[in-house]
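The authors assume throughout that readers already know how a fold can be written as discrete tokens. For illustration, here is how one protein appears when written out as sequence plus structure tokens:
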Amino acid sequence: MATAEESKRRAEALVPKFQFERVLNQDEAGRRINLYGQVDSQPALLVLERAPFPDAPEYLSALPANLRSITNLGNNDIYAWFLGSGGPILQNDEKDKFADFKISLICPCTEKHIKKHSRQGVRFVTETPEIYRDKVRPFMQVNREEGRLNWVYNIIEGRKEVEDVIYRTPLGRDGDEGFLLLPNLHWDRKTIDALHLLGIVERRDIWSLRDLKKKHIPWLRHMRTKLIDATVKTYPQIEEDQLKLFCHYQPTYYHFHIHVVHVMSEANSTQSLGKAVGMDSIIEQLENMAGGEETGMESISLSYTVGEASDLWTEVFEPLKRNDRASLSQ
């Protein structure tokens, strides 16, 4: 009978013998892939999953300088995106052909960036029309100032990412109804099941879905049709019913934009309950509201998740929670 050590060595020797035949499945984030093949003429299934990054300082301090084939995918204001490789060098390997790192750089970053990307607790809050009017709207105003939307305006005005734009109405031609479509910075632009595009409007008076009114319904329907048409034309392997359109609330930045995503895309935290609101649902909500053309999304309560390290929690909802507790205790 083989010893435990012999069994271990025998099992370890099987992986290098794997002869690849075809891909069975791959997750949209590219972290896991299922391969079919053979080991010693026997059918075999090999599941590869990216291991967590080691948190050892000696590894992380050396990693950026040792990445190979860093290629810039785009840069806009303080943001830049890259592909890089840390895998084995293959014979006659082409630059970036097998890049295995998608890299984002924010430089110089702010305290807000640090908070957003740090591990933090999450709260589920309800924003009433009154809280929106008195607390959140002023908060949005502050966060639209100080040049924080320069990178968006660079795209709209054709100063940055021009070559990435899939569709746009000519700048200024359609007045308040102009918009454009381009890949989301987090998409690798290769994995179709993970497709993620952004529709960005030209007008600057709509900060979020809160500013949408009944009078905007024809424009929203027109945009929805054009965004879908442009997507399936650019990526013919995708059909119309393989796309979902949604808006975030709260959004990451206060300039109205629409996400266009493949339905196979994994529903991560940015697409889950308390973050994403379907575009069709927004249109239907507006259609069924009682009132005239100026009736809109500012008149309803919205519930969503908010990070404990975010200014929205520390400056708005946490003080409201403290005040509510104080009122109850009196």
